[in-house]
Write a structure and sequence with these properties.
Elements lengths: L3 H13 L2 H28 L5 H5 L3 H4 L4 H22 L1 H8 L3 H35 L11 H26 L2 H21 L4 H4 L3 H5 L20 H25 L3
Length: 260
């Protein structure tokens, strides 16, 4: 590990010199903030038309992160490209020749990319929150109210964790296209569909996105007397962290056992 700072420096150089990874991070911020702002403005204009039970359980903080469902897709692409680009270009063989200790190479890549995703994620969450609350007008909440600061920081952590999970999957599959074909439909449709169906709802609540997104909620899902998940905000985030740990470990095992 004596050369680990050099590994970190090389991974930082790779990421910042590839235009696609930079643009996906910008897209994650712009899409999340823009869509969230539009939905908050719509809610403020149509709040009186909502059903009474919807008004009683309205969560202004979560509404400010409504665009996260689309923004996380850009973060998935970022995580996949950070790893997959080296395999598609053949650069992985050069990287392994320069850093024979595969664990160090993977760890350096994950640290640099996750730190970058965390910075962008926190910037996105704070921008989304303050702009969303401004558009909600009299229905807004302050960041000092109970649970709100945790939700805003948690939204940034959620985006970083999504990127890390995607890097683990891409390392395991060793292909950007294959990883995107698995991750995009799952986060865009499959998880939501299974979460909406009564027969699969209790299983789907343990999926990484559904469990992890609990940290962005201030009003509990069961506040209206509905079916609430058996975990709190940090419990849900812990479940997502376990999914991510499993993906990273699987990726490391594949990287260590198979030829580049």
């Amino acid at each position: 590990m004596a050369d680990f700072p050099a590994v970190l420096a090389s991974e930082w150089t790779k990421i910042r010199t590839v235009a696609s990874t930079t643009w996906t991070l910008i897209a994650a911020l712009v899409v999340t903030v823009g869509v969230s702002a539009g939905i908050c403005a719509f809610i403020n204009a149509s709040f009186d038309d909502m059903r009474p039970e919807e008004q009683l359980t309205f969560d202004p903080t979560l509404s400010a992160f409504a665009g996260m469902a689309l923004g996380q897709l850009a973060m998935i692409v970022f995580g996949v490209l950070v790893v997959g680009t080296e395999y598609s270009s053949g650069m992985i063989r050069t990287s392994l020749a320069a850093v024979p200790r595969r664990g160090s190479l993977l760890l350096g890549k994950l640290i640099v990319a996750t730190a970058l995703a965390l910075v962008v994620g926190l910037a996105t969450s704070f921008l989304s929150f303050f702009l969303g609350q401004a558009l909600l007008g009299g229905r807004s909440v302050g960041i000092g109210e109970p649970g709100v600061l945790r939700a805003v920081i948690g939204a940034g952590l959620y985006m970083a964790m999504i990127a890390l999970f995607s890097m683990g999957v891409a390392t395991m599959l060793r292909s950007s296209m294959l990883a995107l074909c698995v991750l995009m439909p799952f986060f865009l449709m499959i998880s939501s569909i299974l979460g909406a169906v009564e027969a699969t709802r209790k299983v789907a609540r343990y999926f990484p996105d559904q469990a992890g997104s609990r940290i962005m909620q201030v009003v509990p899902p069961g506040a209206a007397g509905g079916d609430a998940p058996p975990y709190g905000p940090w419990g849900g985030f812990g479940i997502m962290a376990l999914w991510t740990l499993a993906a990273v470990l699987a990726g490391f095992l594949v990287l260590r056992k198979r030829d580049a």
